[in-house]
C-alpha cells in the first residue's frame, strides 16, 4: 500500500477550524501542498488549526513548514467529530532567521481522523504555517 499525504486537500483533507483568519493568507493554504502559500496568525497565542481526514488513517510521519514558531504541539483524535484530542508531540523549534522552519516527526503508526496543531508561542507577534504533511495509509473501505 502506497503512503499518502493525508493533509492535502486533494487527498480529501479539510480544514475544520482555525483560530485566526486573514483574507490574503487563509488557513486552507496549509493543505494546498505548496510552500509558497501560507496561513498567518493574527495576534495572541496560542493559535491552532485542525485538519480532518476523509476517514481514519494510520500515520507514520507528520511534518510542518512554518516560520517564527517557538513551541508547537500536535494532537490527534480518532473520534467521528473533532473531539477527545490526545497529545502526540510537543517541541520547542529552532529559530531560523530568514528561512522556513522544517520539522519532521516520525510517529509509531498511530491512527487519526483529525490532527490539531497548536502554536503555543512564537519568536514574534505573528507566525506563518506554509505546509503540513501527514504521511500514512488507510484501509480500503
Describe this structure in words.
- With 141 residues, the protein is mostly beta strands.
- It has no helices and 8 strands.
- It has strands at 4-5, 14-18, 39-40, 47-67, 69-77, 86-92, 101-122, 128-137.
- Strands 1, 2, 3, 4, 5, 6, 7 and 8 form an 8-stranded antiparallel β-sheet that branches.
- The radius of gyration is 14 Å and the shape is globular.
- The protein starts with a strand and ends with a strand.
- The mean pLDDT is 92.
**Number of DSSP helical runs:** 0
C-alpha termini separation: 14 Å
The global form is globular
Describe the biggest sheet?
8 strands, antiparallel
Give the ordered list of helices and strands. EEEEEEEE
State mean pLDDT (0 to 100 scale).
Answer: 92
Percent of residues in beta strands: over 45%
Helicity, as a percent range: under 10%
Low-pLDDT stretches are: none
- What structural class do the secondary elements suggest? mainly beta
Radius of gyration, CA atoms, in whole angstroms: 14 Å
Tell me how many strands there are.
Answer: 8
Short characterization:
This protein is mainly β and 141 residues long.
How does the SSE layout of this entry go?
Layout: E1 4-5, E2 14-18, E3 39-40, E4 47-67, E5 69-77, E6 86-92, E7 101-122, E8 128-137
Antiparallel strand pairs: 1-8, 2-4, 3-8, 4-7, 4-8, 5-6, 5-7
Amino acid at each position: 500500500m502506497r503512503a499518502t499525504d493525508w493533509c492535502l486537500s486533494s487527498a480529501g483533507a479539510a480544514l475544520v477550524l482555525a483560530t485566526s483568519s486573514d483574507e490574503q493568507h487563509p488557513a486552507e493554504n496549509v493543505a494546498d501542498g505548496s510552500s509558497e502559500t501560507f496561513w498567518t496568525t493574527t495576534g495572541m497565542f496560542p493559535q491552532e488549526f485542525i485538519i480532518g481526514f476523509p476517514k481514519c488513517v494510520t500515520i507514520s510521519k507528520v511534518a510542518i513548514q512554518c516560520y517564527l514558531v517557538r513551541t508547537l504541539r500536535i494532537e490527534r483524535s480518532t473520534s467521528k467529530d473533532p473531539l477527545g484530542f490526545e497529545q502526540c508531540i510537543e517541541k520547542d523549534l529552532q529559530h531560523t532567521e530568514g528561512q522556513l522552519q522544517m520539522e519532521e516527526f516520525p510517529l509509531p503508526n498511530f491512527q487519526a481522523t483529525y490532527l490539531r496543531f497548536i502554536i503555543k508561542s512564537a519568536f514574534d507577534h505573528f507566525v506563518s504555517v506554509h505546509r503540513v504533511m501527514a504521511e500514512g495509509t488507510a484501509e480500503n473501505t
